[in-house]
Amino acid sequence: MEAMIQAKERTNFQRSVLNALRESGQIPAVVYGKNISSTPIVVQKSDFLKEIREVGRNGVLSVNLDGSKQKVVVRNYQDDPLTKEILHIDFLAVDANTEINTNVRINLTGEAEGVKDGGVLQQPMFELAITAKPDQIPEAIEVDVTNLKVGETVTVGEISSKYQFQIHHEADEVIASILPPKQEEEISTGEEQEPGIPDNLEGREEQEEV
């Protein structure tokens, strides 16, 4: 079933009006893309959240604006830093047969063997830049690290063959690795001496007497 969102065009851009829309359960948004002029719209928050949960963050939605339907993906959104409420959405109009550039987050799954042995899991890469048709874009790229041992890594090249889309990263770029357990530094204390008395105090006194 097609994920459909009803939308209305908006013409008033005053802050007070935008805040009133949000308080009434609506989200200001904009639709733009190839062969379509940038159009400010407003959508129902409940409808948007319901449909985006169904298709995923990178899924394709259909926006119905006054009877005209347009397939879109969420290009970006702004949220309140405190409440995390969505304040504004950018919808990118797409063609099902035309590839687009986007970023997809990376999720590490499983408990690595190296971590069980005391190693530390590092994830230097959290997103992949890809080019794909809209229906090929996954919500996230899952990378299983269960068998990863201390000193081992997972690189882009090791996962790229699993996907049909183009990944814009070098094959040797590291997604995850297991660092060795942190070694405690050995501290050499040397010979014990009376606290607060420098080693060369006696030598300094001899020089002063000469």
Number of strands: 13
Instruction: Give the biggest sheet.
Output: 6 strands, mixed, barrel
Structural class: alpha+beta
- CATH superfamily grouping of the largest domain: Ribosomal Protein L25, Chain P
Helical region count? 5
Helix content: 10-25%
Organism: Perspicuibacillus lycopersici
Region (Disordered): 179-210
InterPro entries: Rbsml_bL25/Gln-tRNA_synth_N (IPR020056), Ribosomal_bL25/Gln-tRNA_synth (IPR011035), Ribosomal_bL25_b-dom (IPR020057), Ribosomal_bL25_C (IPR037121), Ribosomal_bL25_long (IPR001021), Ribosomal_L25_dom (IPR029751), Ribosomal_uL5_bac-type (IPR020930)
GO molecular function, one term: structural constituent of ribosome
List keywords for this structure.
single chain, 210 residues, alpha+beta, Ribosomal Protein L25, Chain P, RNA Polymerase Alpha Subunit, Chain A, domain 2, 2 domains, six-stranded mixed β-barrel, four-stranded mixed sheet, 13 strands, 18% helix, disordered C terminus, 5S rRNA binding, Large ribosomal subunit protein bL25, Ribosomal_L25_dom
What does this 3D model show about the protein?
This protein is α+β, with helices and mostly antiparallel strands. The protein folds into two domains: 4-94, Ribosomal Protein L25, Chain P; 101-179, Beta Complex (RNA Polymerase Alpha Subunit, Chain A, domain 2), CATH 2.170.120.20. It has five helices and 13 strands. The protein has a six-stranded mixed beta barrel. It has a four-stranded mixed sheet with strand order 10-7-9-12, with no helix packed on it. The chain has a three-stranded antiparallel sheet with strand order 8-13-11. A hairpin with a 2-residue loop joins strand 2 (26-33) and strand 3 (36-44). It is elongated, with a radius of gyration of 29 Å. The termini are far apart. Residues 184-189, 195-199 and 201-210 have low confidence and may be disordered.
